[in-house]
Amino acid sequence: MPSNLKSDVLLPPAAADFGSEAGTPKTEENSTVSFRGSSSHSNDESAVEIAVTIENSARIQTLRGLACLLLIAFHAIGHNETSGLRVAADSGYRLFTNIFIHLRMPLFAFLSGFLYACRPIRRGQVGVFLQKKTRRLLIPLLAASTIHFVLQRLNPSTHDKIAWHDIWRIYVSPYDHFWFLQALILLFAGTVLLDSARFIDSFGRFMMVFVLSLLVHLVIVSPYNVFSINGAVYLLPFFLAGIGIRRFRDELCSQIVRYGALAIFGVTMTAYVFLCLTGGDLPGRGTAWGTTIGLSGCVALLNVMPRIRWMAWVGGFSFTIYLYHGMLVTGTRVLLGSFGIASLSIHIAAGIFAGIAGAIFLEIMLRDQPSMRRVLLGH
Q: What is the DSSP letter of 9?
């Protein structure tokens, strides 16, 4: 394995969510800190190295917390005027959801790829890797989507319910926010093939695969969106970008790349916000403009995002939050409605709080329940 895979990001156990495995033994290829000799100079180097890895880890966790906040706010408000709180198209809340449409899910995919590159598949361990991903992603996906479906059926205010006899559709087709996890499973399966065939172990081959992924992302839409394959195609460049930034940091983390990404994000995002404010035609997902915003934004945030302690703490629960925030947000909306509370601000704030705090509480409560934790959280 190439030397540029050595890790410089310290991953706490919580970082196993969305792409890495907790408890991986430290080896030459994934150790976070190396100590070179016993001289005072070596000790000084090691101390600096430790400080850098801790800061980088906190930044990754902060970004995961930010992604969770953007996602929960989006679902608390609703993706259009007939969902969620049915917020009007000219509302400031609707403007907020539109502004971040090209950053929310790309950021999740980018971080998943980054974390995968920190602890990639080992040669000869394909079966073990896929078994872990089945336990970590597929089983909780099936459990959470089933619970979500049942609660939607029992909730009289749910829009566009799926019939009981069509429950099988939620496991093979995109279903609410669970489409991302279906797509992520496909991305991991594809990455296993790419890494096993050594297609992305050198910078030149990686860039060829990345450019090809962009072309597929911009051009191809499958008429049969089985297991969110279109979602996987949409997220593929962002997932690969996360891998590349981590694996080939000498080439992709230069000052030119960092400042270039920040400048491109600033220009494209400013123009996009202007369109949002003026009511212009907004670029959709899978367009060159939207993809540029997502890619440059992910790289820029990785380099400039400050460490925010509480947001990093929230980021440690990101997988549980992703799985269960939808039903918590909906339950909060129903509860507030039963008391006659109609304020949008109260609904949104309470929904965001419930989506985060409820999921964190669930994970903490299941820590002493290994069987339920394995099924519901994949731990």
A: S
Query: What total of structural domains would you count in the chain?
Result: 1
Helical axes 229-247 vs 203-219, angle rounded to 10°: 150
CB 231 within 8 A of CB 179: yes
List the structure tokens of 56: 């980088």
Q: Return the closest-CA partner of residue 364 out of 69, 60, 54, 14.
A: 14
* Residue 56: count of CB within 10 angstroms of its CB: 18
Q: Is the pTM of this model over 0.90?
A: no
pLDDT in tens, 55-82: 568 889 999 999 999 999 999 998 888 7
Q: Are 109 and 102 in contact (CB under 8 A)?
A: no
Q: How many CB atoms lie within 10 A of CB 221?
A: 12
Q: How far apart are CA 330 and CA 320, in angstroms?
A: 16
Both structure tokens of 289: 């403009």
Range of the domain at 102: 3-376
Tokens of 186: 């496909």
- End-to-end Cα, the chain, rounded Å: 29
Token duo for residue 233 = 């195609």
Cα 339 to Cα 325: distance, rounded to the nearest angstrom: 21
Q: What is the DSSP letter of 369?
A: -
Q: Which two tokens stand for residue 284?
A: 């959709």
Residue with tokens 């195609």: 233
